[in-house]
Amino acid sequence: MTLEAPMTGFAPSLPLLHRPPNLGWRHQTNLAARPTCEQQAPSAQENSAMVAAAASFVLTKAASAYTKGGRRPGGSTVTTALRELEREQRRNKTKSDIDLLYGQWRLVFTADEKTKNPLLKAVYFPVRAQQTFIPGDKDVGVFDNGIFFFGSTAFFRFRGPARWQPKMNRLEFTVDELEVKIGSFRWKKAGLDKEGPTLEGRTAKTLPFFTFFSIRKDILAARGRSGGLALYARVPDDERL
């Protein structure tokens, strides 16, 4: 699968980053006469940086078009960009900055590569869903996840403790509290986790988690425990719920 370019001047397909364009025999002849240093192919490190930059461009465009309006990149394009960025992060073993994770993030796009339902395979999320990461002590904070309708008139949200694993760029969490609001009606329940609101003695074998392969000021990209990919856009301060 290649990274499509749904708009003119939008983003190059990733294969273009791996080979020089076909310039014709005249241009190739001229290139042959140039100094040897100009004929050298990009190094593996330079090529990796170009691939990551192209993928980041697509994801930034998708997040901006989703939140501010505009033409969105196609689902297959965004999915490929997420895969490429994840592959580059693994190859380079890049560590994420936990401080950039804190705040509110709006879910933009999800891709489930295992589903047989074409409507769920690659989709811009149709309603407002957002996650909030709240810092705590010693890499343990709070994870808040909610789906909102008509602003905050109606919502379904849950929260619980979260733990950052820096070596794996992974956030492990559990759900212990649920809250539902519809107009003036509000219902809240705590104590959902039978093991209590703590992560002590628990591992990723039993806990849900997200592995982040890109945490930036404006976008967030992760893969969940179930294998799905997700793209988020940071919520501006004046739009927080």
UniProtKB/TrEMBL annotation:
It comes from Chondrus crispus. This is Plastid lipid-associated protein/fibrillin conserved domain-containing protein. It comes from the Eukaryota.
